[in-house]
Amino acid sequence: MPTVARNLLKAGSTAALACLLAACSVHGAQSQAQLPATAHAGPVQAATLQLAQAQATGSADPVATEVATWLRLQIEGGGTASEIDGFLRAHPDWPGRAQLGQRLQEALGAEPDDGVARDLCTTHRPTIPASLLRCANALGGPATTLPPAAVVRGQAVPLSLANLPAPVADAARADWVDGLDDPVQEAEFQRLFGAVPTPSDQWRRFDRQEWSGSLAAAGRQLPRLPAALRPLAMARLSLHRGDASGPGLAAALHGDPAQDPALALDLARWLRRHDQDDAALALWRGSALAAEQAAPDAHRPAYWNEREALVRDLLATHRDAEALAVADDSLQDAATARLDRDFLVGWISLRRLHDPATAAARFATLPAGSHSVITTSRGFYWLGQALDASGRAADATTAYQAAARYPTSFYGQAAISRLAAGGNAQATLNSALAALHDPAWSSGDALAYAGQELARAAAFLVACRDLHHARLFLLRLDQLTTTDTGHALGASFADGLGLPDVAVAIARNAGRHGLVLVRSGWPAPYAPPPSPALPPGLALAVMRQESSFDAAIVSPVGARGLMQLMPATARQVSGGLVDAAALGDPAINMQTGTTYLASLLQRFGGTEPYAIAAYNAGPARAQQWSVANTPAADASPGSPATIDWIEQIPFAETRNYVQRVLESQAIYRDRDPAPRARIALASQSGSRQGGQP
């Protein structure tokens, strides 16, 4: 029996059943400690495809052949348009549909058969220049020499709205408005279809690009705009980029900025970023408010994000009443923005303006409007704070008890500490965590889960050493799962296959819907090196938040490995001994990361929230916040003063990061990771590998 299957059976894991039913026992899967890294960034590698095809040949499970086909079709030129179309129809629930759709478009552009192309053009909207041209010829006449003139309905003519088949003309206009921002595709579209978009289409394209922050593409779009709209576009683009000329260009328009919703938002952002808070505040009292009222619903969250940023600036200078006025945005319909608004209004009302009644009403909307473990516990905890401040001690206790029902969350743990009132809060928390259990399942449930096509495909891919694509199948399967038991099985299955990052992802998503998977959602697949300078559980908590225990992940900015270290930081911490490549070794990464984390903890006098904030946002920013946000007299993680300090961090990412690390640290604190660690790092340094999801 293969090593991984034997080990999983010893652990009694559901994944053992899955591996035995699927690929692991058939194909001789190795343990994760023996698997090399594969397909990090997503493309199918030739060696991966060859191995999958070879393994599928000897497999009794038909899903193996289907997976090998799926891998082949992901490759440019890997299949015909008809073959890809057939695969998509036969496998509607498989992942990677966007990539396969792109390959279909490429293949359609090269399809030699007019009849096949004609059929595909009626069922798939062409989305790239090559497929648009092929559909124009297939639907309008025989294909021949391509532009500068193109053959449409048998005649060589420039492609324009007037002489294209209507479905192709409509598709070309929609494609131009909605996408094709890549410079190469953009240039090809212009060569073939540049005369097709209308002036309105050209403006809609720019509007989308500038709203979304695709500023380079928006800049290339300027010459194509109607002359009357170019000054407005230049003003928007200049403001969005932060150019000094931005306000002048906006003023030269001689109109109310509210006439263009994006212009008012861009101007408000520019003023705040240039420390002109008074002018920004005045804008929000007039033009920006009117612009927000006129903006499409899809753009409303962008206004809230800018409002919140200004509110944070105003709070930092104790302009509390003005901050409240900006925060109280009645126009928000999106659930996330609405709940963020109510929390911020409640916090300002309670902590700055000493209005607990208003605060209580706002905090009560959080548990009423969300199933999320994090949001619900946050709302109940702060409702308790507001009720306490109102002198309603009994009602406050009820609110704290409601928050304490979520002991895996930061605010659930804070509520437990508050209810302990000088007692042993850690013991109470440990008891609450011990009382949590993942949903139970039977062997029949496990067999049914493991027998699903996507589960078998994932196990086959693990056996083929393709961890990246295995992740896609597991996450897609969880998206399709509708029961608590199914989510618990999915997390356990992923963990058993050696993909704890997928287990963490499944647990996070479950938490958004009120389901806590404490056993599989907080794995400990690595044992960090002993460090007397670090509190128990902190290193594991940082790893869970940074990488979800994917040892080979590389962030878009270049942070690497389990503790997501930047190479420059690693070189500094190690005295030049650790480079970027070495950070792929889990042992080296953890040793370097824990050393750096310990140095931050020492720098901030042992105050864990400060050190955690520094790990995420940099020590200089954390130092600034530790002074500006009134250092806590009681700097313990769950103290009210520390909680207020965290809530005043101006970056949402860092506020969330600190809370998530602290809550995970409490879970890991008294959990010995050694029995669960699958890798003895001292003897198998660098052996675990994986791919980036």
UniProtKB/TrEMBL annotation:
Annotated keywords: Signal
InterPro entries given in the database record: Lysozyme-like_dom_sf (IPR023346), Lytic_TGlycosylase_superhlx_U (IPR008939), Transglyc_AS (IPR000189), Transglycosylase_SLT_dom_1 (IPR008258)
One GO CC term, this protein: membrane
Entry's Gene Ontology molecular function annotations: hydrolase activity, hydrolyzing O-glycosyl compounds; peptidoglycan lytic transglycosylase activity
Residue span of region Disordered: 673-693
Keyword Chloroplast: no
SUPFAM superfamilies xrefs: Bacterial muramidases, Lysozyme-like
Domain Transglycosylase SLT span(s) in chain numbering: 533-627
Annotated GO biological process: peptidoglycan metabolic process
Signal peptide: 1-28
Family statement drawn from the similarity comment of this UniProt entry: Belongs to the virb1 family. Belongs to the transglycosylase Slt family.
Official protein name in the record: Lytic transglycosylase domain-containing protein
UniProt source species: Lichenicoccus roseus
